[in-house]
Amino acid sequence: MSQDPTPVTDSPFRAEPGDRDLAPQFVLPLVVRIERAAPPARTDALETAARAVLVMLADARSAGDGEWAQAMRDWQDARIRKVVRRARGAEWRRAEALPGITVTGKTAEVRVFPPVPLDGWPKDLARLQVSGTELDDPEPPVAAGPAAPVLWMNPGLGMSAGKAMAQAGHGAQLAWWELDDEERTAWRDAGFPLAVRTPDPAHWARLTTSGLPTVRDAGFTEIAPGSCTVVADHPALR
């Protein structure tokens, strides 16, 4: 189950070009189910996407000689890219037929797939739309408990739900890399509990100077390169 942490000097979430840009580029596909009559709540979708990334990282097929292990290594040797697409009805059923893992939240369903080349998506995923993933919370999320891992989203950035889901996944992955094997096992065995929340600006300023793992976006879509998008606040890292 163990994955080697990424050296800070070669972070795949740095905005500056580096050796990772010279490697073949892969992407981790995630598909969120959005039915017209019952779309998921935004925060639940973000949390479910983050858990889906963790489930993929922890899966036995992603390590050692597992069937997804080489793809996972190739992906993690390059830039860490995640792309969220949306599906409903027959589209969702076709996505479920492909190798992957479906993670279910309170209202959200997200299926995560082993990494694929940037220009080599399976046709049933490539035809799905990226844009238009706009979701709302029917009610404001309750405050996260003090013992809960929290992925804090930048309050000053406007992101589509799909972009925010990918960023939450980045934050969860950074936290995973920072934990030791015992801490990872405990998190996995508990079902990867976590919360995604947006702090007020003052709290965000403290978080970004706290030393906790921080995602800085490469700027491929929506936001400027180098933007700090997520701070991963796991109790074991405080």
Structure description:
The structure is a single chain. By secondary structure, the protein is of the alpha+beta class. Helix content is about 30%, strand content about 15%. Strands 1, 2, 3, 4 and 5 form a five-stranded mixed beta sheet that branches. It has a four-stranded mixed beta sheet with strand order 7-6-9-8. A hairpin with a 4-residue loop joins strand 3 (about 100-105) and strand 4 (about 110). It is globular, with a radius of gyration of 17 Å.
Q: Would you tell me the structural class of the helices and strands?
A: alpha+beta
Low-confidence region ranges: 1-10
Rg over CA atoms, rounded to whole Å, is 17 Å
The proportion of strand residues reads: 15-25%
How large is the count of helical segments? 7
End-to-end Cα distance, whole Å, is: 23 Å
Quick check: average pLDDT?
89
Shape summary: globular
Series of secondary-structure elements, N-terminal to C-terminal: EHHEHEEEHEHHEHEE
Largest sheet, strands/sense/barrel: 5 strands, mixed
Helix content bin:
25-40%
Give the number of DSSP strands: 9
